[in-house]
Amino acid sequence: MYTAPELVCPAGNLPALKVAVDHGADTVYMGLKDITNARNFAGLNFDFKSATEGIAYAHKKNCKVLMAINTYAQAGLTHQWHKAIDTASELGVDAVILADLGMLAYAHQTHPHLRLHLSVQGSATNYEAINLAYELFGIQRVVLPRVLTLEQVKQVTKHTDVEVEVFGFGSLCVMVEGRCLLSSYVTGESPNTHGVCSPAKFVRWEQTPQLMRSRLNNILIDQYGSEEPAGYPTICKGRFMVQDETYYALEEPTSLNVIDVLPELIKMKVSAIKVEGRQRSPAYTAQVTQVLREAIDLAVKDPDGFKTSTKWHQVLAKVSEGQQATLGAYSRPWK
Fold this sequence. Notes:
This protein is α/β, with parallel strands linked by helices. The protein has two domains: 6-172 and 254-330, Alpha-Beta Barrel (TIM Barrel); 182-247, no CATH class. It has eleven helices and 15 strands. The strands form three sheets. It has an eight-stranded parallel beta barrel with strand order 1-2-3-4-5-6-7-14, surrounded by six helices. The protein has a three-stranded antiparallel sheet with strand order 8-9-10, with no helix packed on it. Strands 11-12 form a two-stranded antiparallel sheet. Strand 1, helix 1 and strand 2 form a beta-alpha-beta unit. Helix 1 runs parallel beside helix 2 (48-60), helix 1 (14-22) runs parallel beside helix 10 and helix 10 packs antiparallel against helix 11. The radius of gyration is 20 Å and the shape is globular. The two termini are 31 Å apart.
């Protein structure tokens, strides 16, 4: 019998938190309603009252809660990030997810009892960086960026005692997390500091008789026919004209799905598998959590005999970005 990795699920708001807990999450992750949170969308996230309720609900059902404080503090505003860490400690979360080295230092020194996870936004892609963060700040888990192959993930787990968390399902990012400058180039606001790839104040939708156009700070990102599903405008997933041809020049919308390689992840002793999607609906959270719960439990019981279910893939296909799935960087057969 192998040790089951934690299933870590998104809690973009209180209803999403509750359905994640009810559908089998071991852990949920949340953020506050401010720029300390890398999913700082209007209408999402938690204030102190709703966070208190959500944490109590999760803990009552033996589910852990993580607080994402995963943007980078700005000069003159560091008190906001300090306050967020203080609030997380006061709320009694099970860990905070941090990217900024200064905030890791603050949390380590000010709240020595508080468990620290290095965010994917911290962009630690090798075990040397992870071990350094452990030596300096005592981190207990790292979330790996979605740019490593399975063999590279295995090398990380072999050379560090820090718990390793990997993404298992959700929207992919073509960039190395924590290093993207595309939105900053277009809007002047970086996703690493303001919390979202496409701040809502810069988003515009234009309806014409034939098309729906989406713009970010007046730059045309995409246009959709009347029967075509329209995605939220982000630079990396827009369609652009390149040498007289219009296509997804950077990245076609698609979702990561690791169900087929769960036995490999379990055998390499990955500590947690994370579902992306705090900006998605509670229905998305419920469906993905339930499928991943079933899949992980079966894979742990018999990794060698594990077979995926057609039903799992059908359910996940309905909530996949772009209605398609991939193993992403995990699978690079040419290397």
